[in-house]
Amino acid sequence: MEFSSKLLENAVYEMSQLPGIGKRTALRLVLHLLKQPESQTAQLSTALTALREDIRFCTNCHNISDKELCEICSNPKRDRTMVCVVEDIRDVMAIENTGQFTGHYHVLGGKISPIEGIGPQDLSIAPLVSKVMSGEISELIFALSSTMEGDTTNFYIYKQLQGTPVKTSTIARGIPVGDELEYADEVTLGRSIINRIPFEGSFKMS
Amino acid sequence: MEFSSKLLENAVYEMSQLPGIGKRTALRLVLHLLKQPESQTAQLSTALTALREDIRFCTNCHNISDKELCEICSNPKRDRTMVCVVEDIRDVMAIENTGQFTGHYHVLGGKISPIEGIGPQDLSIAPLVSKVMSGEISELIFALSSTMEGDTTNFYIYKQLQGTPVKTSTIARGIPVGDELEYADEVTLGRSIINRIPFEGSFKMS
Lengths: 206, 206
What we know:
The structure is a homodimer.
Chain A: H1 6-15, H2 23-35, H3 38-54, E1 56-57, E2 64-65, E3 79-86, H4 89-98, E4 103-107, H5 125-133, E5 139-142, H6 148-160, E6 167-170, H7 186-194
Parallel strand pairs in A: 3-4, 3-5, 5-6
Antiparallel strand pairs in A: 1-2
Helix pairs in contact in A: 1-2
């Protein structure tokens, strides 16, 4: 792509560094900003810079937060003995939307992935282990995505906790509610049969 | 979407103001920036702000440019009597990539669109008309997209130029090179028959 302006080229280059945004999309976005009032670009720049510079993480659960303790961790009504281990803030938001979980979270900040060069020391695993060691947690629910990396991370943490009395569980894998059996993949369908649940328990919510 | 941080919410909101970027994508992009070094966010913000504040438009063709005259307009080898009328800089880049055009451009900055509230006075039509009136242009090539808005804009400019000796043409519409006839839409195929060209001219490039 040949640009007639260095400023434009720079802006498009920086925009195209974002994941899933190629040069063409970046150019479209940048040209859109040029057509909008200058204030919109200023607000976008300010918001991004402010976030990146002033962002804090909850000292308890490592979730993104503006305060030292996030709203979930500082809510006395939530059960601090039950902790759900998730990858990032999007998973917290997804689970919160269900309204089915009243415990605390622990945000790892990623999954162990040798290919991407992410090891256990890059994630907030050590604080989780010491929280469990201190005896304040009775149940740990693993809610990482069921990929190779997710399973590795689950297993790594599980190994670290051997010998502690903490109960560990993982969220149920199975056929999504409303889905047709015939279109389900074999692994999921197979797991859903192995991990079948008593019929009386199947219509109980929360 | 419930956010645990006002800073995060702000950044996601501003990002989702860009066209084609919803709240979920915006969150994904913003979280990506949080995982990258602070310098990446700083560079993105600076590039966008610099572009928006310091951007200039070529005084001749209204294309985005860092100088008073863009590189095309200041190139003495280009034919200034032949002007291609386009919507925005992306069209200039697309035509330049073909290597088939050696004239100048005139960037309108959009198309007449009553629905979006864009009238002739919002586009750089008046400078084009006065350039033609001054007699320095011998041929005007309309290269707007063939939509209702594009056709309206072409026709509006054409009407303004009635009485001047300028030659006007429009880029050929027809079956794309390499396409199968059976899959072509009727309007395009119909036009390609009406506007058929002499066979001897059909394999001449530039």
